[in-house]
Each structure stands twice: as C-alpha cells, then as structure tokens.
Amino acid sequence: MASGAFAEAGADLELVGIQKRFPGFTAIEHLDLSIPAGSFFALLGPSGCGKTTTLRLVAGLEEPTAGSILIGGADVTQQKAFQRPVNTVFQSYALFPHMTVLENVAFGLRRRKIADPVGKAHEALRLVELDHLAARKPQQLSGGQQQRVALARAIVNKPALLLLDEPLGALDLKLRRQMQLELKTIQEEVGLTFLHVTHDQEEAMTMADTIAVMNKGRIEQMGAPEPALRELPKTAFVANFLGQSNLFTGPVVGSTSTSITVDIAGHRVLVPADRAHRHAGEVTIGVRPEKMWLHRKAPVEAADRNVMGPGRVIDVSFSGVSTQYLVAVPYIGTLIVFAQNMAFGPVADVGDEVWLDWHVEHGFGLEDEPVPGAGPRFAADTDTRSIAAQRRESLVTELEEA
C-alpha cells in the first residue's frame, strides 16, 4: 500500500482527571491517560467497564463531569464533536446506502469544501485497496469491504486521532482475523494515532502497541501486550480477563534475593522475586494453564520446577490444537491445564490420578490483597462473572458465524 499524502503523524491524546457520572451510577471514576502520537492504543475490558464512554468523551459525544481532554496539547474539553480533529469508525460502518463508495468517502470533504475531494477520495480508497470498487453501492460489498470503506472515509479527512469502536464486531471469525492484521498495517502506513475500543483480548493483543485494561471505570493495568500484561498481570481481574489463570493464596514462608517461597496447602511454591508484586505476608500467586505440564507419575523434584499433586482428572475437553484438563487437587481445588495435542488421544482420561508441574520462572505474584478465609484457591473478584458471561456470548457468536 502506498501511503502518499496520508503519511502524517497523528497527535498525542491526554486525559487528565476524567470523571463521568450518569444519574444513579459513575461510569468513569478517575482516569488519567496519555497516548503518544502515531501509536495504536487499545482500551480493553468487558461490557460496562467504561471503555466506550471514554471513547465517546474523546469524540465529543459526551461531556465529562470533571477533568480535561487534550489533543496535540490543545484543550478540546469544551469543543463540540465537529470541532475536534477526530474521526470515528463504528461497528455498523454507517455508510450512506444511496451513495457510491467514492461518494461516501468524498462526502466529508465536500461538506468541508476541501479542494479536489474526488482525487483525495480515490487516494484513500487506493490505500485500503478498494479503488477498483469506487462505483459500487455499499450493499454490493462484503462486510470486510464495507469496513474498509468506512476506514477510508475516516482517514481521508486526515484526523489527528482515529477512534475505532468495536469496528470488527460485525465480521465473521476468519475475516475478523484478516482485518486485524490489515488494520495494523494501515495504521503503520498512515501514521495516525489510533484509539481502539474492544472487549476482544485477541483483537487488542494482535493490533495494539499498548493496551489499557479497564474495570469499573478505572485502568487496572497498562502496558505492551507481551510480556507486561499477559505474562505479568498485576490483579486477578487482569489475570482472568487476558486468558485464564490458576491463582493461589498462601503465606510467604521464605525468600532470597531472587525468589519467594509460598505455602499453598502444604505445597512449597517458588515465584521469582522480580515477577511478584508482594514479598511478605499473605500473597496471591498464579500460573497460566498453558505453562503447566500433566504427568501420569510423580515427576522428579527439581529446584527450577514447582510440583502439585496428586490430583484427579474430572474433565477433558478437546479443542483442536490443545486439550483442556480440569484437575481436582485435595485441599487446593480445581486447576486448569492446557496441553498441546502432540499425539493422538488425550494424555489422561477422566478419573486418572495425575501430577502437575511448571517452571518456577513462569509463575507470577499479584498486587491483590488476599481474601480472608478464601483458602488456598484465590477467590477472584465478582467481575470475573461478567468476564465469563462475555466469553460465553463471544463463543456462541463465533460458533453461529463460523
């Protein structure tokens, strides 16, 4: 793709002390956020976390109860939506059905009396590789093609900031994965600042340079997709929203300059000190299911591995590239293990006695205060219920669309 005149850097975005209250509830409690110019930034979280409200505040579609919004260093808090150097791509695309693709893209330029609207519209369509369909109507295009037209219409105005509100949600699974890669490529080509709002963790991890995970109107954690967020979650919410985690609570019973030792129902579990946020007292630690290994016999103990077991397999679920095992371990609870399918058939069957182990370097420790009386298995906060509901809804949608 040739970027041409569109290779202009976007502007930085800064939110300072943003609050947004609606009658009866607070959507955003206190939000400070800084997004560098030219970056691809994602706001990620479940429904009701405040991410869409944040996008609407930046777009000028809502007014903050308190705080300031700055784009390129200029305070735009009091400006109307049409006065801001911002464009939005919505999930519905919002194309005019009676206009051709070219007319849709040129529409905003004509209204603003920009010189050569047709030439600029063709240039934007070439960028998204749709100039050959310029004479068609939106209903003659596929979902992915309509999404690209909406993107061309947004970037043709050369906004300092492009807002993406769940733009791929209406596409089928295969096309959504393809468009994730294409959107990232286009962002790098045009050099604009992209703010992408989504509940889809894979979508955010694939495209964004930086991700902010939101919960209850606040940012719980922000950083690069790997390793900051997935490998080193700070809270139970982040650990469970970005994939799944086995979380445990116990007292720190030993420490060195490189690791801490935590007692989990009689099992001594080591965690690297630089991967743990708390180093004394009751702590919560965790390990990802894909980092664990399943054994039919007790593994040989080693200084660089943690071992749990014996336990009993209570469920086996085949999912193509991997198999999920649920293992009940006495005095601890049910643990999840993902095993890559390297051979025909499961490693273990329901009812089998097994042991689990993982490399010490794959463990992590959370900032969360342990829940009193919760036992060795950490009681995740109640918002993980909404996470589970969101995942079920997403899975059902994908299965229906596949």
Describe this structure in words.
- The chain is α+β, with helices and mostly antiparallel strands and 402 residues long.
- The chain folds into two domains: 225 residues, P-loop containing nucleotide triphosphate hydrolases (Rossmann fold), CATH 3.40.50.300; 160 residues, Nucleic acid-binding proteins (OB fold (Dihydrolipoamide Acetyltransferase, E2P)).
- It has nine helices and 20 strands.
- Strand 4 and strand 5 form a beta hairpin.
Number of domains as seen in the coordinates:
2
Biggest sheet: strands side by side, in what order? 6-7-8-3-9-10
CATH architecture of the largest domain: 3-Layer(aba) Sandwich
Largest sheet, in brief, is:
6 strands, mixed
Give the number of DSSP strands: 20
CATH class of the largest domain: Alpha Beta
Q: Specify the overall morphology.
A: elongated
Mean pLDDT: 86
Give me the secondary-structure category.
Answer: alpha+beta
Distance between the termini: 29 Å
CATH fold group of the largest domain: Rossmann fold
* Percent range of helical residues: 10-25%
Q: Mind telling me the C-alpha Rg?
A: 24 Å
Domain ABC transporter: 13-241
GO molecular function, one term: ATP binding
InterPro entries: AAA+_ATPase, ABC_SmlMolc_Importer, ABC_transporter-like_ATP-bd, ABC_transporter-like_CS, Mo/tungstate-bd_C_term_dom, P-loop_NTPase, Transp-assoc_OB_typ2
Protein name: ABC transporter ATP-binding protein
Keywords:
402 residues, alpha+beta, Rossmann fold, OB fold (Dihydrolipoamide Acetyltransferase, E2P), 2 domains, 5-stranded antiparallel sheet, 24% helix, 33% strand, elongated, disordered N terminus
